[in-house]
Design brief:
Helix content: 25-40%
Oligomer: single chain
Strand order of the largest sheet: 6-7-8-3-9-10
Largest sheet: 6 strands, mixed
Distance between the termini: 50 Å
Radius of gyration: 19 Å
CATH architecture of one domain: 3-Layer(aba) Sandwich
Number of helices: 9
Structural class: alpha/beta
Order of helices and strands: EEEHEEHEHHHEHEHEEHH
Length: 253
């Protein structure tokens, strides 16, 4: 459902080229929830913006639900829902009006919008907020409304870029539980976060980016040798985060 092949993105700063992504490749199958991890500046948001058709790659290709992000952007958007930590909610629109507006942007008729809105308000626990203005919503509720907005046209693919940033613990757990329920409905989800515990809670596997390159792609629960790449990365980021031979050596002194 999501495929990236040798994605490369070069920006220019003061006339000098800077490579934000270099030959990034991965595949996410239907119904998978995959976590995208990496330090600041690793290329996570650039990758997601390319997949969402907000940026064009310098080279390489990507597909969402079989449609090319560069040559078929309209078809990609019809099959995609996107939420980030800064996804806008119109302060002067009620939650119901917001969903109606975005439903019409996706070409939905009034009856379909109403039916889909009713379902989303119920399943996301937003029924009491239907007529409340965006300006009156808490941060956690705004994120849930953002998710409802991304789901109004029932896309098969969701891309979530650090959606829990700024949320309190209870709101974070509620959003993570919602994502698990969406997986049960068959949604394919790419989930970006700085928090390993979130990835561990909801994702089937993880992809780690560093300096614009894929450093590791796999299941951290696996006991196979490929897991050594994950341990090496984590030790580099925080030498005390994993029980590696080097940590054991230091501790035994």
């Amino acid at each position: 459902m999501i495929q990236a092949v040798n994605l490369t993105k070069v920006f220019f700063q003061a006339g000098n080229p800077f490579s934000a992504l270099t030959n990034v490749s991965f595949t996410i199958q239907k119904g998978e929830v995959v976590g995208l991890l990496g330090p600041n500046g690793a290329g996570k948001t650039t990758t997601m913006r390319i997949l969402c058709t907000l940026l064009k790659p310098s080279s390489g290709s990507a597909q969402i639900a079989g449609f090319d992000v560069t040559s078929q952007p309209d078809q990609v958007r019809r099959n995609l829902g996107f939420v980030s930590s800064g996804t806008g909610i119109y302060d002067r629109l009620s939650c119901q009006e917001l969903l109606e507006y975005h439903g019409k942007l996706h070409g939905m008729d009034d009856k379909s919008i109403q039916k889909r809105s009713d379902l989303l308000f119920h399943t996301l626990g937003l029924e009491n907020y239907r007529t409340r203005l965006g300006a009156k919503l808490s941060t956690g509720t705004r994120q849930k409304v953002s998710l409802a907005r991304a789901l109004i046209h029932d896309p098969p693919v969701l891309i979530l870029d650090e959606p829990t940033a700024g949320l309190d613990y209870i709101s974070t757990l509620s959003l993570l539980d919602t994502i698990k329920e969406l997986q049960k409905q068959g949604k394919t989800i790419l989930y970006s976060s700085h928090h390993c515990n979130e990835i561990e809670r909801i994702c089937d596997r993880g992809i780690i980016l560093e300096d614009g390159k894929v450093r590791w792609d796999g299941d951290w629960r696996s006991t196979e040798d490929g897991k050594k790449g994950l341990e090496a990365f984590l030790e580099k980021q925080n030498p005390w985060s994993v029980n590696t031979p080097r940590v054991k050596e230091i501790q035994s002194k």
